[in-house]
Amino acid sequence: MPARLVVLVSGSGTNLQALLDAAADPGYGAEVVAVGADRPGIEGLARAERAGVPTFVLRVADCESRAAWDAELSRLVAEHEPDLVVLAGFMKLVGESFLARHGGRVVNTHPALSPSFPGMHGPADALAYGVKVTGATLFVVDAGVDTGQIVAQTTVPVEDDDDVDTLHERIKVAERTMLVESVGRMAREGFTVDGRRVRLGR
Ligand code: GRF
What we know:
By secondary structure, the protein is of the alpha/beta class. It has one domain: Rossmann fold. It contains six helices and nine strands. It has a seven-stranded mixed sheet with strand order 3-2-1-4-5-6-7. Strands 8-9 form a two-stranded antiparallel sheet. Helix 1 runs parallel beside helix 6. The longest helix is centred in the C-terminal third of the chain and has 26 residues. It binds 5-O-phosphono-beta-D-ribofuranosylamine.
């Protein structure tokens, strides 16, 4: 049985597309069973619809509070009985209810090399700092901002003439490869978390 992935998106969904493409091969060991978003009308949802994958949308603005949104999101995700929840460009922090229900099997991808440059502006912050190498980090989500245990990292050079867009695009190419490889291995081989350290395999 392939592992069941629920993927949450907020934008263009190129990471989601990479997972959908990989999962088309039965040997990948995982299938995307649902895609959720915190806003309607985004390309990430259109990608899911084109692939015939069920979608759901839950806006914070449509809930009584942020906590109510988090609890309802967690319920919507649980309906699809995921083995792994992948936050792929999902621009919201999940909260207490979500982590109580799904914690330990939620991963997120961040476009910087943790623990450097957490938060919403990883590529811009790396560029402004002047680092010569940056990249992306896949991590197990905890209550912090991009602080969870690291599953995988990938690096790219920062070029002299980069702006935020060219740098983020270079990161995203490497990020998609890392995401597909790591999620596939997590699905096929399982993983264990021991303190800060994540090991793939049983
Ligand atoms: C990725 O770089 C992700 O790490 C960041 O936003 C980007 C999302 O890209 N948070 P996409 O929606 O998967 O194309």
